[in-house]
Structures are given as C-alpha cells and as structure tokens.
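hey can u check if this looks right to u? its 333 residues, i copy pasted from the old doc so theres a chance i mangled smth
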Amino acid sequence: MIFKPWLDEMAMVCGVFMKKQAHILLAATAVFYSGFTFACASCGCSLSSDWESQGLSSGRGLRFDLRYDYLNQNQVRSGTGTVANWPVAGHEQETYTKNDYVTAGIDYSWNDTWGISVQLPYIDRSHGTNGFAYDGTDAGTSHSSSLGDIKIMGRYAGFSADHSVGFQFGLKLPTGSYTENFSGGPIAGNPLDRGLQPGTGTTDAILGVYKFASISQNWDYFSQATAQIPLNSQADYKPGQAINVNLGYRFLGLENITPQIQINARVSAKDSGLNASPDDSGGQTVYLSPGLTFPLTEKIKGYTFIQVPIYQNLNGYQLAPTSTASIGLRAGF
C-alpha cells in the first residue's frame, strides 16, 4: 500500500514526540493567554498554511499562495453539544451561514532571517435567520461578496543558527465592509449582524511564535501560536481577542505526495459593544486536519485539507460547521 510507510512510522513518531510538542504549545498558549478574555469561535477556518506557503520553512525568495475554504455552519451548538430543543427564548434563531473564502497570499523573504507576507481575503457569505420572534415577522436573509480584512505580517527568524524558531508581528486592517444590510425577508434593509460582516471595522494587532524542524529522515513538524488583539472599536462593536495554536506533522517518505496532519485549536473571547451579541459569541474549538500536498509543476504545488471538529465549547447558541474543506495552490520563485 502507498500509505503503509507513513502509517507504520506515524504511531512511533507521534508517541515519542507528542508530549514534547504539547509542552511547547501549552507554554506558548500560556504566554498569550495571560490577561486575555478570549469573538466568534465557529465562523472561521483555523487551518495554518504558514508552513510553506508563507515561507516559514522555504528560505529566501518570493512565494504566491491561492487558497479556497468552504465553511457551512449548519448546526446549532451550545457548550460542548448540539441543541435538541430550538429555538430558545432570548436567543436569535439563526438557520444557516454558508461561507466561501478565497485568500491570495504574497510572501517575500529577502534573507533567511527577515520576511513579510500579505493576505488578501475575498468572502462570499449567505445567511438566514428566523429572528427572535420565531414567527417570521423578523426573519431575514443576506448575501455579501466582497474583500475582507487584509493582513500584513512581518517575521524574524534570527533566534537560532538554523532559523527554525521565529516571531511574527503585524496588523489586520479594516478593509472589509461592516455596513452590509439584510437583503430579503421582513427585515430587508436593516443592518446585518456585525459578526456576519465581511470586515470588523477594527485594526487588530497580530503576534505569533513558531518553530519547525525535522524529527527524522522522513518526518517534519511545526508548532505555532498566534494572538489577534483588536486595538479599537468601530460603530459600537469590538470583536473578541483570539488565539490560535497549531501543531502539524508531515511525512516525506513518498515520492509524489506529502501526507500532512494538523491539530488546530482556537480560543476566542466574546464580542463587545452595543452592536455585538456577546452572549452568543466566543468559545473554544479544536480541529483535526488531515491533508496532502502534491507537485503540479517544478515550481507549483497543490494542497488539500479537511478540518473535522474534535472538541467544541461555544458560548450561548451558535451555528457551527460539521467540517471545513480547503484547497490551494502554492508557487515559489
């Protein structure tokens, strides 16, 4: 079987190495968590494509990345389980939120120590709600397609001789619209919920640390922790602070494909402000994300991942996905 070498070694590698990396990730999480009260826990893909597509392990040069994520929030969850009796008085009866994200990434490393990346997201989102009355009188639908909030990130990897440990820093800019309206139903023309807008309207600071290395001849790993901290509020809304922690392994013993697996954890705070829904935002999620990368040409690679939630603990009542699909292309020069 083509995957037999990968399967044979995976148990051994994970068993020996997982404890060590768990301590690294917990330490990184503790650094970022101190002083935070951690926005929407279930409305974004937490998969990391930083490993190669954003230059963390690819050395100097120019790289381009184009990635598509599909996220269908079609189940109502509260705490760690699904909701059996719905709706619940005092909470909006949301029915669906479908998200299509296309993110273009440009990354440049002018040496082995310094690099910069820009991520430009385009978001297509449709949403339906039966409102708070549950009888159709305040029901509505919406559909938006526009640029989201752009991220500009720098990185420094001069802490070790092999440049395997790095620090990330940057900003999320308020380039996405936060003034979209409902387009259908009795509430057509009314402002769309701020948590469903293409942009937050805020400027956020982003800080992160990462480490990557070889475990053996056929195995590499990376670990990463990134915090996003809103620096202001906009129109009576402020998204909650959030931290993402990622751990990934890849197997290099096959000729034409590289199996990968990631664990992606996200902790996010409640949104705040008069136009926020703090009771139904924020929480903790952990995803298991198996995937593959494969060469298309000498300079272009493709990748595909599926994210499956293995733990969700959401505040209030929120729509959450059963899985997330991601595909992408990466080119290096």
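Helices lie at 4-33.
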